[in-house]
Amino acid sequence: MLLLMIAPLGIVCAYSLLTRGPYGGVMRPWSIGAYGRLADPLYATILVRSFWISGVTTTLCLVLAFPLALFISRSGRRKNLYLSLVILPFWTSFLIRTYAWMFLLRDTGLINTVLQTLHVVRQPLPLLYNDGAVILGLVYAYLPFAVLPLYATIERMDVTLLEAAADLGARPWQTMLRVMLPLAAPGFIAAGVLVFIPCLGSYLTPDLLGGGKTVLIGNLIQNQFTTARDWPFGAAASLALMALVMVLLAVALRRRREALL
Amino acid sequence: MKRWLSVYAAAAFGFLYLPLLILSAFSFNRSKFTVWEGFSLHWYQAAFADTELSEATVNSLVIALTATVISTIIGTFCAYGLWKKNSRALLGSLYLTLVTPEIVTGISLLAFYQAIFRFLHARLGMHTVILAHVAFSIAYVVVVVMARLRTVDPRLEEAALDLGANEWQAFREVTLPAILPGVAAAALLAFTVSFDDYVITSLVAGVDSETLPMVIYAIARRGVNPVINSLSAMIFFGFGALILISQRLEHRGSA
User: Fold this and answer.
1) Structural domains counted in chain A
2) What angle do the packed helices A94-105 and A110-117 form, to 10 degrees?
3) Range of the domain at A255
4) CB-CB: which of B99, B108, B224 is closest to A249?
5) Which residues of chain B make contact with A1, given a CB cutoff of 8 A?
6) Global ipTM
């Protein structure tokens, strides 16, 4: 595994320091020019955009996942069945799940057809090929990732604490806000990291549901390696992405340790 | 509160399943458009008659099966090694592969192949795809097998050694049977991630190694095509059944 995964990463490091060859590929001299170009405002916009879309997706996933996780943890013997139901879509093809939304959202897709038949709208709504569609696709894809850690935390939670809050006169929503949510914080962090990281590096969803208009870091890297054939820049961008992921993980892990102490 | 939660959960499951179920329902539609015109198996016939699709399916199956066998064997030994002797470096690199964005894995493998091919005069093809799939599925196998190994009592193997078994016998006769359900689950996971992968495959594939996700992607980019609906329905229900069966087996194994 060292050979298969770490060596390639090492080569990418080397590539990022080389100069672009006349026919694509890489050549000497060594330089850090590729990294300098990352600071270009154009790419900074892509970076900010990636963070924005991943952030919105993560928030939505957490908000949507928490009640579902709560429901599953309170459903007694059916727990395993419901958990399987949450995981099952994750096992089926990512591509097909994305395609299913294309089928629903496009101009002649199901939603627009139904709305037009019912005379709710005259012109088809532009549902596909925008940021909203990308976020929807990402939430759909990564919701299971958020449900599982939240479920695990709620399951481990000391029920007596909730009962104590109720006995001391807290209303259900107060128990929820003051006791349950703070106790679930480690789960929220784990779920957030699990959703945010793949979103940040996502490539297929923005490509298919964003119609190439929503360029995120993943698409930028892919583009540099295929169409633009600027390998050093692509390599620099992927290392920057890796570094971001590492920093996020480190911060999340540290936070979590504090929360556990 | 309880009722609200139930209603919410029903809506959430609807959100997770309706798109796929609607897609599957419309694969039986006679019309090419999103208007229901009657039941027909036309798109299933079209999917089976398409030579490009069937070639890609065969490619995908060959790649996924080979990669599954190789990565399951390597991954199981990897997990076994980690269980016996904790190595921070190996564990670290394991988690590194799991959190690496797919696109970065893909381009680094591509760059790696290109660097090697300068000396070997080889080209991208089925073998590079298989190697790439092995590379990224090992980590999944290790994680699943490790989880199972944690439930095994290390003293059992020590007892076997005391009773005169050599290390290989102790592994084969004692530990392996105990973790077999985990190994099977890991193999299934490796198979699904390999069969499903598009991003990494598309980067390291050669001309002769087009896989099913690559064909689906190419068609999906051009727009919606009912043949893909029928294909999606088959994959969705096929894999769904496979997973449910495997979960049954796993629960039986651990009970």
Assistant:
1) 1
2) 20
3) 40-260
4) B99
5) 74, 78, 90, 93-94, 97, 135, 138-139
6) 0.76
